[in-house]
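Thread amino acids onto this structure.
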C-alpha cells in the first residue's frame, strides 16, 4: 500500500518515526510529507515536560524524544492509496482516505496532557475519513499518571502500534470494527491559568501519595447456596468474613478447589519483610479457615494468582510468574501441599494472570501482556492449544483486546445457564479498582468478543478501595479487596 505520512516539523516525535518504520517493515511504501507550520504546546505544559525530563530523564523515548530534522521524500507524481496524518491541524477531508491519531477525541496532543492533569487516562483513537464522526477507540491504562511525560511515552507508543495495525487491516480488507462515536475533547479550551491550576492540584496529589500508606489487600469469603455473585451479578449483602492476617503480610488472589469432600483456598501471600509473593493454601471448614495459610510454592521470583483447576483427572496450577517471563504449568503430586513443574507453556513473554478455559474442545489461555510499552492492565492476549500441555499458539498477530476496563483476567471462567462468563479487572481508574463480569459472545479461531454484564466496585456490602478477583467452588465464594 502506498502511504503519505504527514508530520509536523515542530512536533515530530520519535513514536511517529517508529510507526513509519514499522509500516515499512510490513511492506508498505511510506513517503513523508512535512507540514512546515508548527503549533506549540501551552507554556505550562511545556514547562512541566521540561522539568520532568530534567528529573526523570527522557532521552530517545517515544514521546520525550523528538524526531530530529524529518525530511520529505515524496517524489513528484506520487499517488498514495492512503494518507496517515500525524499533525495537530484540523483539516477538511480530501478525496484520499485519511487516518489520524486522536487524543480524547482531538488531533491535538495537549488533549492528552489535559486529560492526564485532570486525573484520567485519555481515550486513544484512530479516525478514518471514510467513517466521519467515528473512530477505533482504545481505553489504555496509564500505570503512573503522576509522570505526565512518561504517560505520554506510553500513549505515543500505543498510538503508533494502533496506527500500524489499522493500516494493515485496511490493506488486508478487514472490517473497521469497534468504531465508536468520537467524543468532543473536554480540555482544549483550557488557558495557561487553568493548566497551572491543574498542575498545582497534581503536585498536591503527588505529595499525598508519598505520605499515604500503600493499600493493603485482604481476602473475603462466604458460604452460599444461591444468590451469589455469579447468579446475581452483584455483591451480595451479608455473610462475608475476612481471612485474618497477622499484620506482617497480606493475602490476595483467592482461588478455591473442592477435592475429596474438603474445600481449600489458595492465595498469594505477600510478606512485607521479603517484598516477594509466595503461594499458600488453607483448608476451609464450615465455619471458616482451619488455621492460617501455609506455603506450598515459593520460587526466587514473585508469584501470585494461583490459578488452580482440574483437568484429565489431575489437579493443576498456573501461577503468575511474569517476573520470570514465562507461563508455567504445575501438577499436584500430593494435593494440596506438593507441586512439580510439568511444562513451560509460554516462554519469553511477560504474561499476567494466565487463565485457561476449555471451550468447544479447544484449550484457550487468556492473559495480559506487558513490555514494549504495553501495560498488563489493558492488553489482553489469547493463545490456543489442542491439549493442556500444548503446544500453545497465539491467536492473531496483535492483542485480542486493548481496554483497561475489562482486559486483565480476574478469576476462573464460569457458566451462567448456557453462557460462558469471565471475570476481569477494571483498571480504568487504577489497578484492581473494580471487578467486571463479562459474557463471552465469541471465542474461536476467527476472533473473541465479550459483553460486560456488570461492574462491581466496593460498596456497603464489601467496603474498601478496590477488588480484583472472584472465584467460586462448592458454594464457597471468595473475593479480594484493598483498604488504605
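Threaded sequence (484 positions):
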Amino acid at each position: 500500500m502506498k502511504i503519505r505520512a504527514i508530520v509536523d516539523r515542530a512536533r515530530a516525535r520519535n513514536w511517529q518515526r517508529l510507526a513509519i518504520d514499522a509500516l515499512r517493515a510490513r511492506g508498505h511504501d511510506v513517503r513523508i510529507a512535512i507540514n512546515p507550520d508548527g503549533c506549540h504546546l501551552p507554556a505550562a505544559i511545556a514547562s512541566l515536560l521540561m522539568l520532568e525530563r530534567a528529573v526523570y530523564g527522557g532521552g530517545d523515548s517515544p514521546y520525550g524524544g523528538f524526531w530530529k530534522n524529518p525530511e520529505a521524500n515524496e517524489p513528484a507524481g506520487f499517488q498514495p492509496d492512503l494518507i496517515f496524518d500525524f499533525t495537530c491541524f484540523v483539516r477538511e477531508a480530501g478525496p484520499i482516505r485519511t487516518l489520524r491519531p486522536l487524543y480524547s477525541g482531538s488531533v491535538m496532543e495537549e488533549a492528552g496532557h489535559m486529560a492526564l492533569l485532570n486525573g484520567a487516562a485519555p481515550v486513544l483513537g484512530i479516525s478514518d475519513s471514510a467513517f466521519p464522526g467515528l473512530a477505533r477507540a482504545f481505553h489504555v491504562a496509564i500505570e503512573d499518571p503522576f509522570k505526565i511525560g512518561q504517560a505520554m511515552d506510553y500513549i505515543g507508543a500505543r498510538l503508533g502500534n494502533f496506527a500500524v495495525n489499522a493500516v494493515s487491516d485496511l490493506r488486508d480488507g478487514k472490517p473497521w470494527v469497534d468504531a465508536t462515536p468520537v467524543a468532543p475533547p473536554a480540555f482544549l479550551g483550557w488557558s495557561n491559568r487553568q493548566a497551572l491550576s491543574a498542575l498545582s492540584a497534581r503536585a498536591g496529589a503527588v505529595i499525598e501519595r508519598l505520605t499515604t500508606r500503600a493499600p493493603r489487600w485482604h481476602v473475603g469469603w462466604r458460604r452460599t447456596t444461591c444468590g451469589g455473585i455469579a447468579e446475581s451479578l452483584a455483591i451480595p449483602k451479608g455473610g462475608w468474613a475476612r481471612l485474618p492476617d497477622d499484620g506482617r503480610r497480606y493475602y490476595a488472589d483467592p482461588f478455591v478447589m473442592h477435592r475429596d469432600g474438603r474445600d481449600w483456598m489458595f492465595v498469594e501471600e505477600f510478606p512485607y519483610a521479603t517484598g516477594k509473593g509466595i503461594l499458600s493454601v488453607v483448608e476451609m471448614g464450615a465455619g471458616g479457615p482451619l488455621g492460617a495459610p501455609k506455603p506450598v510454592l515459593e520460587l526466587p521470583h514473585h508469584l501470585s494468582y494461583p490459578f488452580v483447576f482440574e483437568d484429565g483427572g489431575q489437579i493443576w496450577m498456573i501461577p503468575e510468574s511474569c517476573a520470570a517471563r514465562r507461563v508455567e504449568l504445575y501438577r499436584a503430586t500430593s494435593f494440596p501441599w506438593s507441586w512439580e513443574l510439568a511444562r513451560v507453556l509460554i516462554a519469553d513473554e511477560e504474561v499476567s494472570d494466565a487463565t485457561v478455559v476449555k471451550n468447544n474442545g479447544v484449550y484457550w489461555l487468556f492473559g495480559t501482556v506487558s513490555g514494549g510499552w504495553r501495560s498488563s492492565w489493558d492488553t489482553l492476549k489469547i493463545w490456543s492449544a489442542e491439549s493442556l500441555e500444548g503446544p500453545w499458539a497465539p491467536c492473531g498477530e496483535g492483542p485480542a483486546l486493548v481496554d483497561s476496563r475489562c482486559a486483565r483476567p480476574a478469576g476462573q471462567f464460569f457458566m451462567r445457564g448456557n453462557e460462558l462468563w469471565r471475570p476481569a479487572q477494571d483498571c480504568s481508574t487504577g489497578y484492581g479498582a473494580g471487578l467486571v463480569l463479562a459474557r463471552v459472545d465469541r471465542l474461536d479461531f476467527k476472533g473473541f468478543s465479550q459483553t460486560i454484564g456488570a461492574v462491581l466496585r466496593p460498596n456497603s456490602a464489601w467496603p474498601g478501595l478496590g477488588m480484583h478477583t472472584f472465584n467460586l467452588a462448592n458454594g464457597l465464594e471468595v473475593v479480594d479487596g484493598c483498604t488504605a
